């Protein structure tokens, strides 16, 4: 599987930081995302891609959340996960957003909060005890310009095992 040009139109709606291209610096998190995506779609080979980013990306307008869930992060997640009548995605004007991931365990707490079953204080308290993982999401073509999508490295799940070494795009073409 080779990934071509990054395309924000292929991104999902109603996710943590809004429609965008999501990255993490944790292989385990990326591995879990890859497996889950293949399971949800019912086809494909779980593949983790390693991109290099130009740090000048962070000179663009963006939003950085603390390393642990806070009330403003919770509200931001909820605003992006709610149905919207204007259908604008993402629901903010940031080129990039970084902060904790609302994984499956977090989603349950966020859903309870969105249904007004628990307070923001209770939600934050419950979220802080969960293992924290982080993500960076890119929401504009200007942000994608800071991603080196030529020198991408790959790892794939084959016969129940991940390839031991990272494979370059050139090697994948052989």
Characterise the protein shown here.
- This protein has 174 residues and is α+β, with helices and mostly antiparallel strands.
- The chain has one domain.
- It contains six helices and eight strands; from the N terminus they run βαββαβααβαβββα.
- The strands form two sheets. It has a four-stranded mixed β-sheet. Strands 2, 6, 7 and 8 form a four-stranded antiparallel β-sheet that branches.
- Strand 6 and strand 7 form a beta hairpin.
- The longest helix is centred in the N-terminal third of the chain and has 15 residues.
SSE topology:
Blueprint: E1 21-23, H1 27-41, E2 47-53, E3 62-64, H2 71-81, E4 96-100, H3 104-114, H4 120-128, E5 134-138, H5 141-144, E6 147-158, E7 161-162, E8 167-168, H6 169-173
Parallel strand pairs: 3-4
Antiparallel strand pairs: 1-5, 2-6, 4-5, 6-7, 6-8
Helix pairs in contact: 3-4
Measured as a percent range, the helix fraction is 25-40%
Total of DSSP H or I helical runs spanning 4+ residues: 6
Q: Radius of gyration, rounded?
A: 17 Å
Report on the biggest sheet.
4 strands, mixed
Any idea what the shape is? globular
Q: How many discrete domains?
A: 1
Strand order of the largest sheet: 1-5-4-3
Distance between the termini: 12 Å
- What is the element string, with H for helices and E for strands? EHEEHEHHEHEEEH
Poorly predicted ranges: none
Oligomer state equals single chain
- The amount of beta strand, in percent, is 15-25%
Mean pLDDT: 86
């Amino acid at each position: 599987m080779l990934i071509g040009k990054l395309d924000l139109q292929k991104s999902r709606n109603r996710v943590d930081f809004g429609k965008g291209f999501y990255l993490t610096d944790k292989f385990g998190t990326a591995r879990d995302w890859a497996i889950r995506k293949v399971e949800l779609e019912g086809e494909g080979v779980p593949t983790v891609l390693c991109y290099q980013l130009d740090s000048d990306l962070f000179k663009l307008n963006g939003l950085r959340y603390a390393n642990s869930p806070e009330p403003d992060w919770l509200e931001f997640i909820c605003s992006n996960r709610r149905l919207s009548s204007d259908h604008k995605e993402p629901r903010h004007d940031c080129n990039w957003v970084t902060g904790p991931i609302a994984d499956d365990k977090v989603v349950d707490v966020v859903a309870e909060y969105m249904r007004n079953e628990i307070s923001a204080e209770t939600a934050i308290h419950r979220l802080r005890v969960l293992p924290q993982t982080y993500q960076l999401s890119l929401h504009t073509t200007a942000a994608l310009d800071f991603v080196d999508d030529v020198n991408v490295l790959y790892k794939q799940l084959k016969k129940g095992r991940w390839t031991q070494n990272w494979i370059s795009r050139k090697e994948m073409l052989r």
